[in-house]
Amino acid sequence: MTPPALLLLCFSLFFPFSRISGSPTYTPRPLVIWHGLGDSYASAGMLEFISLIRDMHKGIYVHSVYLDKDLEQDQRAGWFGNVNEQVEKVSEQLADVPELQGGFDAIGFSQGGQFVRAYVERYNSPLVHNLITFGSQHMGISDIPLCRPLDIACQLARRAARGGVYTEWAQSNLVQAQYYRDPVQLERYLSSNHFLASINNEVPDTANSTYSDNLLSLHKLVLVVFSADKTVVPKESSWFGSYAPQDDDLSEKTILPMRLQPLYVEDWIGLRTLDERGDVLLETCEGEHMQLSTGCWKPFVQKYVGGPVQVDEFGSVLAVQ
């Protein structure tokens, strides 16, 4: 055997032909969805939405976040639980999904939006590429969402939250209390809240610069508000707006928009830098809270979800676009 032939034989033994001759292929970037209040990770509505996305982006891998594989318990976890612990649990869940290890896009429905943002700021491994939030409460709420007539769990949680929203128990066990931001009781909110005040870096003594670094790793942050939203109070919270501080409940309520928020002006979480970079998009869907018409969600999901990821024939990520 001639030396060149011998060399080729040895090379092929250590590096099979398929590994050196196969050209890289492209697959849609995976997607993670965190459902909203009153829903579960595999409800009929969620499964239908996931099916529509798979029709749109052929071959896409979609992971629906769950806090309990039992559907009723997963739904209940939207009302009762410690949000910080829930976000940590989800970070561990995502880290164990092989298909997500090269990064993913994310969609957060309603409160799921601020929960995904908390994941980005605190963990982000695997990392999020684009984040879309629909009707989320990024600057909290000043009222607890109304309940369906026969939803007893909701009614109990709402009554308990309104009665003692800033008690230690409520701030550790009632999900909505953990992003309840009362413009009349801001000092009490800042001293007792351990979720929203944390991810918004509102308390200087506990501010975390990692939150800013991680948020800035996003390529796009798409914030969608519902034009007639009466569930999120104020609806501008979906765009990082809030009621301005008030002296009492009788004071006139005015909206402090995102770009006038101290959080933005002083760039506590990197939001201003991300916006000035051109990567914060303020979008609107017409209608009430979470009335997701196809004309509303489809353009965003078409543009910001499922971008091509270059992989080799073994599925290893080579490049992300």
Automatic annotation (TrEMBL):
N-terminal signal peptide: 1-22
> Which Enzyme Commission numbers does its entry carry?
3.1.2.22
Using the UniProt record, name the top-level EC class of this enzyme in a single word.
hydrolase
Pfam families with a match to the protein in the record:
Palm_thioest
| Keyword Ribosomal protein belongs to the record | no
InterPro entries, alphabetized: AB_hydrolase_fold, Palm_thioest
Q: Which residues form a coiled coil?
A: none
Domain of life per record: Eukaryota
What's a single GO MF annotation on this record? palmitoyl-(protein) hydrolase activity
Enumerate the UniProt keywords alphabetically: Disulfide bond, Glycoprotein, Hydrolase, Signal
Similarity field: Belongs to the palmitoyl-protein thioesterase family.
- Which PANTHER family does the UniProt entry name for this protein? PALMITOYL-PROTEIN THIOESTERASE 1 (PTHR11247:SF8), PALMITOYL-PROTEIN THIOESTERASE/DOLICHYLDIPHOSPHATASE 1 (PTHR11247)
Descriptive protein name: Palmitoyl-protein thioesterase 1
Source organism per UniProt:
Sparassis crispa
